[in-house]
Fold this protein.
Amino acid sequence: MTIASVALPVARSESFDYWVPAGLDVRRGAVVRVRLARRALIGVVVAVGETSDVQPSQLQPVAEVVGDITLPPDLLALADFVAGYYQAPLGEVLALMLPPLPRNASARARHAAMLAEASDSGSVRHALNDQQQSAASAIDAARGAYAPFLLRGVTGSGKTEVYLAAAAEAIAAGGQCLLLVPEINLTPQLLARVAAALPGKRTVALHSRLAGGERRRAWTAAASGVADLVVGTRLAVFASLPRLALAIVDEEHDPSYKQQDGVRYHARDVAVWRAHDRGVPIVLGSATPSLETLTKAQRGDYRRVDLTHRAAVPAKPPAIVFAPARDPHALEGIGQLLCDAIGMRLSRGEQSLVFINRRGFAPSLLCAACGWQAACPRCSVRLVVHRDARELRCHHCGHAEPLPRACRDCGNVDLLPLGHGTQRLASALAERFPQARILRVDRDSTQRKGAFATMREDIHAGDVDILVGTQMLAKGHDFPRLTLVGVLGADNALYSADFRATERLAALLFQVSGRAGRGELPGDVIVQTDFPTHPLYRALAANDYDGFAATLLGERRITGLPPFGHLALLAAEAVKRSDVDAFLRAAHEAAREALANDAGVDVFPPVPAPLARRAGLERGQVLAQTAQRPALQRFLPRWRAAIAALPVRRVRWAIDVDPAGFG
């Protein structure tokens, strides 16, 4: 009897054994349909043998092999690594690697026909400057072996041209390339640049917003070797690439590479492991590298290649000016200096960007009589005012309700929107500059498919005078006529308890400042702040990200935080706070027992999560910290097994290795 061990995405067990009926071609990596109790499930075969620890009478048969998808050995090895390192069930990891599956044979036939379609484009290759050519040559020279690079390039230095030049050489030698980007909205414009730079080469996109058929088509094109280059978000790190020759992670510092639920992997780190396993170069590109990546470059683990000036010959870094955040003459938070600068750009036919990382009209609604504030009934946060839709919305759970006419506590009708969001700023600017063409760019305004692409075309065409937007506009965009960036609300991150908040703010400010003056016209940046002498702002003015990063690294070294310490966070949530507390107390005790014979890991007592209630669930956490990663990796499997054996019910939990924060 042939036995197939199948990993399923719904179970914490590594795999379940099934017998293989005669005539069914089941091999390692195959996708099969099986039954678990009364449910029919899709799983992946992780082993095939002749024996099982389960009695033959208790084994169920494999129902069918689904489609012609087989995960290759390198992806199975990658799944083992991700499951082990991130303490995730193997079945859940393997599920990330599969495309949406066709429902029936006719759908599979249509899919095969779609795959035969080809795409092509004309050629537009930009000449590389000396620094770009040196970087591309260094990457190409490392082809055929694992070689990690940090491509540290100031904003506007042309990192993408280096990526494309290196990719062209790898593809010409018969390889495939993987290019990860942090945002879905960056994918369409990048695909256009790739098509122009690599004529005749097949490029596909892989990300979660693709329709099922589109995603299957792209996945199969990559897995069959038809696609030469795969461009995608963090999900694309699991693409099947038989000829992988080069991996690239653009904006490697970006927090969106870290998955925040399910399998909590970091796509940058998974890409590095995959490049090492496949023996190929990997390029981590950023103007503001993460502290982890900078430290590895300093230790010599990564080779650092710098692009120190902007690629466009006349382009120079913008001038940085600081203005009071509490200007008595401010227009809805926009100070007089920034207003005057916007007016000057309008008179010259240039574009301005007003940046605030808050969407909506205002972050809260206050009763002026009794102090009541509109709170989310499902989360421990305030509701955000969205005046266009006349709603209050929660940006954590999605709860929405109509704007109240009066205070729910005292009946007062004098309700005040507090703070500023993109909607409020856009409305204020429309009143101040009625002749201006104003475009708001945030998650709300770009929900419709293709909306952001249309907006970007309007900006490039000069049909927009003033942009009001969030971090969607902070990276990866090149608008030659944008000469002014105004930054509001930056100080908010300085009050955060998250140890990564200042690092993220620094990256965001350097990135958004880099949007100004990328063409022939000089640029200016006006930052409204109460703390112009803060080290971060001084570094921004001096264009010295590395110097500020060195300051942060000194703080991290003292506190034992990453990259000098290693963390794992046990997060739990349940309807009742008492269930969460009981579970975490038991898990903390289990951690102490798991560490009885192995020192080197500190496990702190349970605490509520910073967002103590979300989507109707009470939340809490336990933090494990160590200076030695091997000690953490020895401890976590024992702790996870002990937690899984706890009798506590009604609690959903997960271990987050290398958490992005304590949220």
